[in-house]
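note to self — DONT lose this again. spent like an hour looking for the file last time. sequence + predicted structure for the chain T wanted, 434 res
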Amino acid sequence: MPSAFHIMAKPIGPVCNIDCTYCFYLEKEKLYPQKSDFRMSDAVLESFIRQKIANHSVPKVTFAWQGGEPTLLGVDFFRKVVALQKKYADGKEIENGFQTNGVLLDDEWCTFFKENNFLVGLSLDGPEESHNRFRINKGGKGTFQQVMRGLEFLKKNGVEFNTLTVLQRDNSCHPLEIYRFLKEVGSGFMQFIPIVERVAQDSPGDGLSLVAPNFTAASQVTDWSVEPVQYGKFLCAIFDEWVRKDVGEQFVQMFDVALSAWLGLEPPLCVFRRTCGDALAIEHNGDVYSCDHFVYPENKLGNIIDSPLEALISSDKQVRFGRDKLDQLPKYCGDCDVRFVCNGECPKHRFLKTPDGEEGLNYLCAGYKQFFKHIDPFMKFMANELRNQRPPANVMAWAEEKDKGFPSHNIGRNEPCPCGSGIKIKNCCASNKK
């Protein structure tokens, strides 16, 4: 049993008030064909909160509330959540994250978030045209104006928030437009999540259109999925602007994760860790699944009403699920020079063959290689600054000098590179000049 674990809670299951074209979760209603009410019951809610807190042996416990769209439950449901957390806290500090499409946010919601220190994640895919490309309501109309109204309520009430931007084939072609827009609207912390889904050529028979990660029959990537090389270009473009202008002011999840790896630490984001298995999902009825990207019948661990949460997390099935990420990593990936930060990324995306024909190559591999190699000299410099207790924001001045060929350093080409790598400058940063 890990000392801490993450469970994405789906207290209203897949029910949502908008109809995003690329959403992989809306069709999960088909897994519960007899259900008409997806609202989490009081019994399941209390059992989940009690067990999650009790099974953490660390002083801080974080809850993550998602959907579907959790605001559909109403503010009173989450007042009950806070009351139960206080009841079972047992001296532990409780934190809450809340992911929303923002459409229903108002003063009541945002006053509640502020008073109870909720961190709100707002789904926002860029300026109006980019956002409305796929994030539409049930009538097929774009939701951008409603989301921006919700954002204003968050800012008006002083709610701490970040933005989650789904990268798909369309908006991934506009990196600086997306990045600058998010800065302009006040997002200080950005998450860019690549969407990759496949559809079967023939129906898999479970009622779902999007196939499971381990699906081996004929399938094709959806036309909205982000393309690997374009994904790499997107990340490189916003990194180049961020590393020269915004370090210490804007925070991008991917860049923070990468810096951890260059410091020799285990990446904090589950998709880049060597193994997984401690980031699960709980459905509205108490069903627990191995991961929110693996909500399929074969990945159901059990139900917290019937089995203790501790037993589900520690089960042989879940331990094996977590180990498979490392054990099934292709040799091609094991020999890769960016494996230390990528680790094969999420198993959900491992459906290609390696150049030598081995199964299990990540669909996004080309993009990650491009990006991680591109940022290498900058990450080395920032990691060296941190090790020497200096601010990593010094990289901005260093990047400017690097662009000019380090004229102020008067360094010979055979001398150590100023990034701190210990490699001769001619073989390090000077060989990567723009």
